[in-house]
Amino acid sequence: MKNRLILLLALPLIVLTACERKLAADLDVGSGDDALSVPEQLHGKIVLGKRLENPYSTENMQAAYSSLYSTRSSRDVVSTTHLYVRFLPENEADFRLLESRGLVLFDYPLDYEILVDGDYYTDPELPEGSITWQYSVVEKDFDFPDMRYEIIEECCLDEGDAITRSDGVDFAMLEREAFRLTGNAGMLGDETKAAKNVPQGRLTVSDANYNAGEGSGVAGVKVVANSFVKVAKGYTDGTGHFKLNKSFSSSKVKYRIVFENERGFALGFNFILVPASVSSLGKQSSEGIDMNFTFGNDQTTWRRCIVNNVLYEYFDMCGDGTSGILPPPSGLRLWMMDSMTDDYTLMLHHGAVWDDSFISEKFPKVMSILKSFLPDVLLGTGDCDSAFDLYREVYHEAAHASHYAVVGNTYWNQYALATAINGVTGKGLYGTGGRSSDGYIGLTEMWAYYYGSYLFDKRYRMGLTPGEEYWFKPQMLRALEDAGLSPEEIFALFDRETVSIEKLGERIEELYGSGYKDCFDKFFGNPQDDSPDDSGTSDDNSDDVPGGGKDDEQDNGKDDLFGRPKEWGVI
Fold first, then answer.
1. How far is CA 366 from CA 35, 122, 272, 362, in A?
2. Does the structure show a pLDDT above 90 at 136?
3. What pTM, to 2 d.p., does this model score?
């Protein structure tokens, strides 16, 4: 019954925010496919034009060979090396299976003209709300998994095959001839320049309040480029540099950033059921690109890059967890919602709330799809116009996810249930400390407020202690730190057995002695007192803190109100 209540309360939130995001996406206006800069880039739905002749089809490559070497038989040299295909996954497991085979997946066909560029596409012939077709290129002897797929075309792509071993045959020249014969000669580069380009470059993102505003590398994201069915990929390093794994004869290629990070987390959503959001960068030089994203030139990609970097740094700080603070669980999924201003770490993707629910029991297939694509963290970015805002919020939610990695679903369900009951009964999501179930809230929020602010202070040097007005008093953990405990030692207090403020006090004394217990007693002399102080009833949605200046302006950090940041994380 408890799980059913949590589910019923959580579903309207997910559905409502998803609907609002859809309306916002429908209103987007942007530039065409050949946009050369990020500012005009569209983040809505891709609009396709006519189908183009694919120069890399085996048939067209054979025709190109015959055109160049009329006295030879093309079939003796040019043969199928790859297959251009599309898959129809049913759930995330199908996506992961395809990705585990090394495939790069596109949600739009690769051999069509793009009239209006964007971040996503849905096949109009599929039912609304379905997972859309995923297009890819596989080797000719690919072992197809047990899912629906269609082979669109046989292709010749492999430069290392028999073609390059044949006397006097230049694969780059063969490519160019195939482009010419198929009516795509306008896409080729200047013949006087190098015939082949390997895309490389650097992606950076600005933070006006850090490192004198100099752009930081967008770390660990996948960069994909393609010209028709020839696809190259690579990841940015910690400084944002990348070099893709294939070369191109065409002068321009279509670039995309896929926010599925090397560190094991993904940013969604794209308004459709896909494992990670994608930012299209349009057609750019095949030699490479250097791009710096700011709030002013592309708010959507800028926010994605900042949040990506916060999580990348957080995972790196945690390492494998042997240093004392566990990283969030692998496969962490975070949704960014510009129609919201609040944040939630419900860990739905990892099974909290959903597992053992009535939907899981009655509709297991539906449950599998929903659970696969719903988020662990829901981040409201509607009022985030500086990296300052995003860092403080993501640090808080990441701290929650580390706590979850220790305590698991049973504990987290109690936390979610308690916040849901408080919200319904008008106590505010955090409650007052008067209910026994409030202990789960107090402990989870105490840790997240403390560690989120600890990391925020390390970056911005502002000396804030957020959340101190709440009944669970996260400043107590700061006092423990001042008394000599490290954040790692403090984290060790929050295991699955610590379910109340009283238990926390006992745990402090058990692990670190009576001296540290005295720090606890100064704040919680009587942890079982059922009469909350007035501050315990604070509205969690209070709007008494400025969101900081836009990314192009520095936040001075001197406003007294910053002692109580608005939303370090609602739950």
1. 40, 20, 16, 9
2. yes
3. 0.84
